[in-house]
Structures are given as structure tokens and as C-alpha cells.
Amino acid sequence: MHNIFINLYKYRELIAALTWKNIVIRYKQAYLGILWAVLKPIMLMLVFTLVKSFVGIETGGLPYPLITFAALIPWVFFQESVSEGVNSVTSNASLIKKIYFPREVFPLTAMVTKLVELLISFAILAGMMIYYQVMPTVNAVWIPAFVLYTMIVALTISFFGAAMNVYYRDIGQAIPIALSLLMYGSPVIYPLSLVQKKLVIEQAAGAWSNDLYFLYSLNPLVGIIDGFQSALIRATQPDFDVIYPGLILILTILPFSYWFFKRAESWFADVI
Amino acid sequence: MAIIEVNHLTKEYQLGHLTSLKETALNALRRVTFQPVHERELFKALDDVNFHIDEGEVVGIIGHNGAGKSTLLKHLANISTPTKGKVIVRGSVAPLIEVGAGVNPELTGRENIYLNGAILGIPKKVIQQKLDEIIDFSELEQFIDTPVKRYSSGMTVKLGFSIATSMEADILIVDEVLAVGDLAFQRKCFDRMEYMIKRQGKTVLIVSHNIRQIERLCNRVLLLNNGKISIDSDSKTACDEFYRQNDNRILENITNSSRAQKTDEIDLLEFKFYNEKGEETEKIEYLSSPSINFKVAVHKKIELPVFIIGIHTTDLLYIATQKSDIEIKNQPLLPGIYQYRCQLLNLQLLPGPYCLRFSVDRGQFTTNIYYGENLLRFNVLSKEISNSDSSAEGFFSINTKWEQI
């Protein structure tokens, strides 16, 4: 397992070069350049804000655009890392057939590429916070930990998905659908407090309520998104009770996912 | 200790399609319920291959298409994993397997040098030091800041080769890359390869269909046949054996269909090869004077006919060509059947297999009306010079007189 980190260091130049290539190529002939990368969360935020004005969502007195943008930052980072990561091996078929280096470089590169875009999103969030006069507190130190956690979640899915996608391209097709469904299962449009109110306080699903809530918090994005909002906007400690189930689940799956990837890796060149 | 060790290497590929998710699920179900599983047929690309290569050896790998050459290289470069057996490589490998694999069309030449360098594992510092040298070698100074998608295909390959050969590795693996660019650049590549081999004493593995190149560069050759090593010896023996196998294949093709392009004006009815004594044969003595008899059927009147006979090697390297118009006066040929004889006086071809080609031209502006190559095959034999003698290499013997002055 610690091989990941050794390789990450050993192949840092390669990962840096491939990341730089990904970014340069994507925006080379585009006039707006890398601004396209942050257009997605901004557009989604605008749409959600528009929808919110019809349905009314309780935000605890905080400006909704800010709350939802703070949720969209980790979400879009996660979503893009996974969909790029899953396709990263198959889209580099020509390299895989011609030259050897550890194949986890591809999902890692996909993620590092998105990390660069994430930084730009943070700059925009900072601008919004200044506009709404919401100042970050000492709790913001949690953010790097949450980014790392998001990366681990994205890698766990990417390793398994990328390896499977080499054999069955169905995975590449299914992932975007699964991800867009998962967005509704994560507190992106609505805040987590809404779910807690319904299930934990009002026990809306009767006897199943607590089980359902546990199931919901198994989704690691629930903890991540709520943590982001807490640390940055609400200026409180992250709620660790919603983080643990997802974190434990991911840390259990990650070794298997990596092991699966490394096992499948030897046959990539033959089947791709 | 050998720098490369290949022990009992076997590689199997499944024939046919990769099964669908459904088929895999069904197979899993069958396995669980102990029912026979639908297996696909296996193909052995490499079958129990064994060899060791010592440091500094230059080894050529030859064989027909599908003999397993590239599969073998892929295992040495750690791209594929063996089904059975083991491949041990002690040292860094520079795989020149299809150069330009990592060249990205959107990036400029300079950017590609950095990217490809990183892919090949060359540290950035080294690339920066070598940048000028790489650009210089690629002859692309003028275009180095232009995206590669605007390059011609030759320019792309030149760039790829220049980057790949700047890598400093213990072992070079070369797969048919010497055939890049125009003739002048090919020459340059060849010289660079030769320099790396002879001066820097690198271990090199070359796969090529250009047997003459292999014969020149390598001191050891592996001949692969259907995934097995059929010969592992010095380059001369292996290459000669490969030529012999090729000759047999070509011969089969000749008997099946002679390579001839005809028109309705003339037909070749007979084409025979005789030795000095007038016996029809395929074997002649070195420095003898064989002759060729041919019979043609003329269907339409032919103005200014010229017959041409040429000798070429089995791999279609033209050695000599002779026309008839110096000796036979250019009378128009009326429809009918004609017979000719052409004698080859004191043929100085060195021992080995050769082929004959024959063509007919007509008119002042020499329009070709019949053309055939590989029409006949003959062997030159000699008691004094054996087929694998190194005292006389090439195709022709030259009369020499040596003395110290």
C-alpha cells in the first residue's frame, strides 16, 4: 500500500509533466483558457440558487450561494477526478502499449490535474466570501485534510473503475450516470442539517429512520461536503459523527481497490 | 552475470473477442455450479523461450510476421507479463518501440521534448542539458515552437527518434525504428545506433525485417519461428537460414502464382535456365556460363521490341539488368511464336540463391508490355567458396591482387 507514496515520489516528474500536458492540451486553443475549469461549479451554483428561490431551503441564516458553492467545490473536484481517473488508463492506450511505468500514475495524474483546477475554485470562493463578508476562522485548517480525504475517496473509486474499464468499457459509460445520481445523495443542493432534521429529529421514515441515516452517512461525500461548509462558512468544528462511517468504509476498500488495480495492471497492454 | 535472462518464457493470448460482461457473469456462475466453462482458444505467441544476453552484446531478433518478435520485446520492456516463465532484466531499459508513441500533436516540439523525456524517465535536468543537442539532431530548429499537429509525418518521427535516443540506459530495445525519415536522416539514425553500439558498448536488441542491417549491426542473432527460437547463433548463420526459409516461402508463392503483369500484346510461353552443358537445372557452378531460353507468343505487331533480363536476390534487390537491343536488331515483331537464347558469360555471382526477372518493352518511348519477376530461381555453388565463407561478402566477386608497397 505504501507503494503508492513511493511511486508518487519516484514518478513525481512524470506526474507533473503529464498533469501539465493535460492542462495545456485542454485549454490550448480556448480563448477563455483555464477559466472553463471553474465555469462548471459557478453555473451549477447559479442554477441551484435560482431553484432555491422557488422551493425555499433552510440554510441557517447563511447566504445560499456561498453554502452551495462551498459544497460544489469538493463535489466537482471529486466528480471530475473520478470520471477522469476511470478513463485515464484507456485514454492512454498508446502509452500503455509502448512503455512501462507503474500504471497508477494515470489515475494519480488525473487527480492532480483536477487539484490545479480546485485551487482556482478556491480563489473564486475567497472572492465570494469577501463579498458576503464571511470571514474564515481557525477551523479552516481542516480544509487540507478534507481535500486529502476527497483525493483518497476519488482514488479508491478510480483505481477499481480504471482497471475494470480496461476490460469492460461499460464502466466508463456507467460512471457519469452513477455520479450524477450520487450528487443527489450528497448534501450539495440541500444542507446536511435538512436530512438530520427529517431523519434524526422528526424520524420521518419511522423505525427505519436511524438505519437510513447511517446508510446516508456511509457516503463519504456527506462528511466531506458538510465538513467543508462547517470549516469555511459556518466557522464551526466539522461534525465527526457524519464523517466516521464514510471514512472507515473508504479506508477499508482502498487497499482492495489498489490491489485489484495492481493485479489487473499486468494485463493492460494485452487487452486494452 | 547475464544482463538479460529469459527462462522458459511462454505467452498465451486468447483468440477471438474479449467476452462481454454477460458472458463473464455466466462463466462465473458456471464455475460456481461446477458446470463446464466456455473457454476461448489459446494462441501461444511465445513458446518456452530461453536465452541469456551478456552486457555489451548486440542481438538481432528476426523472424516472419507473427513469429513473436514484438511480443518478446514487450516482455523485455516489462510492458507485458509472461503467462509462464521468467524475464530478468538487470539494468535500465530504453524502449524504442515505435518511436513517437508519446508525442502529443497539440504540444509544440519543445514541449514534446520535455513531456517525452519525462515519459522515458529522463530527469528534467538532463533534458535541459541535452535540449540543444536533441533539437539539433532532429533538424527541426525552425519548427520547434510549432505544434506537432502541423508537422509532416516524417518530422514527427524525427522528433521522436531524437528524444528516444538521447536517453541513457543500459539496454536499448529497438523495434524497426531505423526506417524513419528521409534517406539522409535514416543514415544519421543508423550512424547514431552504430555509435551507441560500437563506442558506448551498450547492450542492444534489435528487431528488424531489414536482414542486411541486422547482419551488419549484430554479433548474435535469434531466429524466431512460431514463438520458438529456432536458431541462436552468430549473425551470418542465422541470417542465411532465414534467407533460406524465406526463399522456400517465396518459391511456394512463385509456383502458386508467378508475379507477372501481362498485356494482350505478348505472352511468355517458356522461360528456362540451362547450365553450360545445356542441361536444364537450378544449380550452376561459380564462374560458369549458364544460359536462358525463352519462348514468346506475339499477338499484335510490336515495333522496336526490347527484351530485358535481370538478376535479383530473393528479397528483390536488383543486382544486374541487361537489355537485348544492342545485339538483336530492332525488327518489328509480327504475330507468331519466337524463341531466344541469352547466355550469361562467366557469371561472377558469389554462391547463393538468386532470381531472374524478365520484361519486354516496345516502341520509341519504351512502353512496358510484359513484366515478371521471381520467374526462376537458381543457386550458384562453388567448391572453393562456401555459402557462409566470410572471405567474400556481397554478391559479386572482384579480382584482387594484394601486395605490400
Automatic annotation (TrEMBL), chain A:
Its main location: membrane. Keywords: Cell inner membrane, Cell membrane, Membrane, Transmembrane, Transmembrane helix, Transport. It is a multi-pass membrane protein. The chain crosses the membrane at residues 30-50, 62-78, 115-134, 140-162, 174-193, 242-261. It is found in: Cell inner membrane. Coiled coil: none annotated. It holds the Pfam family ABC2_membrane. One of its GO terms (molecular function) is ABC-type transporter activity. It comes from the Bacteria. Residues 32-264 form the ABC transmembrane type-2 domain. GO terms for cellular component: plasma membrane. GO terms for biological process: lipopolysaccharide transport. PANTHER family: INNER MEMBRANE TRANSPORT PERMEASE, TRANSPORT PERMEASE PROTEIN. Belongs to the ABC-2 integral membrane protein family. This is Transport permease protein.
UniProtKB/TrEMBL annotation, chain B:
It comes from the Bacteria. Residues 29-251 form the ABC transporter domain. The keyword Transport applies. SUPFAM superfamilies: P-loop containing nucleoside triphosphate hydrolases. InterPro entries: AAA+_ATPase (IPR003593), ABC_transporter-like_ATP-bd (IPR003439), ABC_transpr_TagH-like (IPR015860), Bact_Polysacc_Export_ATP-bd (IPR050683), P-loop_NTPase (IPR027417), Wzt_C (IPR029439). It holds the Pfam family ABC_tran. Keywords: ATP-binding, Nucleotide-binding, Transport. GO terms for cellular component: membrane. GO terms for molecular function: ABC-type transporter activity; ATP binding; ATP hydrolysis activity. PROSITE patterns: ABC_TRANSPORTER_2 (PS50893). PANTHER family: TEICHOIC ACIDS EXPORT ATP-BINDING PROTEIN TAGH. Belongs to the ABC transporter superfamily. This is Polysaccharide/polyol phosphate ABC transporter ATP-binding protein.
